[in-house]
Description:
By secondary structure, the protein is mainly alpha-helical.
Amino acid sequence: MNYLDILDQVRAHVSNLFHTKKDERLIYHNLQHTEQVVKATVKIANHYQLSDHDFFIVNAAAWFHDIGYLTSCEKHEERGAAQAKEFLESKGTEPEITSLVMNCILATQMPQHPVGLLEEIVCDADLFHLGSDDFKERNKLMRREAIAFKGIDIDRHEWRLKTIMLFEAHHYHTDYCIDLLAAKKELNLNGLKEKQIKDEHEKAKEEKVKDVVLKSDTHQHELVNAERKIEIVADKKKDKKEEKKKNDRPDKGIETMFRISSGNHQRLSDMADNKAHIMISTNSIILSVILSILLRKLEDNPHLIIPTLILLVICVVTMVFSILATRPTVPPGTFTHQDIEEKKVNLLFFGNFYRMALPDYVEGMQKMMEDREFLYGSLIRDLYSQGVVLGRKYRLLRIAYNVFMFGIIASVLAFVIASAIVAL
Length: 424
C-alpha cells in the first residue's frame, strides 16, 4: 500500500474537519496544535529511523489524536480513535495498521501508559511543548481554552497548581526526548514553582497586614511581628524547597547519568561491531579474489609468490582479529545466595543468571530493588563491565586496522618490487 498517498489524504481530511467544524473555544486544541504534534512526531520518528510502515502509524495517530475535541472534550481520545478507524478502513488500510494507529491515540490519555516505541513517540510528541521554549505561551492558550469551555474565570494560582501537578506526574518515555527535553522541562517546572511560592508569600503577607491594620492602628508591633512571621514561613518554605531539590536532583541526575552512559556504551559497541563486519567483509572479498584468480597464475608468474603470500597472511590476520573483536564471551550464568547477601553479583547482565531458576532470580531482583546500595552498585558494575568489553573490542579492532593498513602498503610495495625485478 502507498503510505504517503494515504497520509496526504489523512492530512487533508483532518485539516478539512478543523475548518468545517471550527469551534472558537478551541484556542489550544486546534489545527495549529495538531500540526505541531505532527512536526514533533516526525522529528522523533526520524531520529529512530522508523520504517515506512511505522512512520505512517505514528503520523496518522498524531493527525487524529485530538480530532475528538470537535465534538466534546470528554473522552476525546476514544472518539479520535473511532474516527481514525472509520477513515482508514474506508481507504482500505490493513486492520493491523488501523489497530496500531488507534492504540497510539488511546495511549495519549492522561495518565499516559504507552506500550512500545510507537505509542511512546506519539505520547512524547503530544506533550513535547512541556520541555520547549514556547511552553509559557502554550500554557496561556490552554488556560484561555479551559475558561472558554467552563464559562468561568480560572484563578492563575489554581491553574499554576494544576500545571505543576501535571509536570510532576508526567515523564517523557523515549530516550531521545529525555535527553532533548528533560532539562528544559525541569527549568519550566522550577519557574512555575518559584512564581507559586512568590504568590503565596505575597498573599499571606497581604492577609496578615490587613488583619493587623483592621484591629488597631496603634498595634504597630503586631504588624512587625506578623511580617517577621511571614518572612520566617517564607524562609522555611525556601529551605524546604532547597532541601527537596538537594534530595531529588541527585537521584534524577544519577538515573540520567546511568541511562546516557549505558546508551553511549551500546552505541559504541554497535559501532565496533559494524567496523569489525566491514573488515571481515573486505578481507573475505580479497581472499576470494586471491584464491580464485591470483593463485592460478602463480605458476606462470613465480615472482608474485612472495607478494601474494604477504597479502594472504595480512588478510587472514586481519580477519582473525576482527572476528575476535565480535566473538561473544558468555559467563557461567549462575549465582549463589551468598553472592546476593554479599552484593557481589550483577543481576542486570544476563550472563550472570540465564541458567538460574526463575524464583531464585526474582528473589535476587527483589532484594536488589529494596537495597539502594546494592542497586546502584549493580548499575556501576554493569557500566564497568560494558567499558571493559568495549576496551577489548576497540583494542582488537585497532590491531586489525593497523595490520590491514600497513599490510596493504607492504603488499603493494612487494608487488611493485617483484614486477620491477622481473622487468629488469
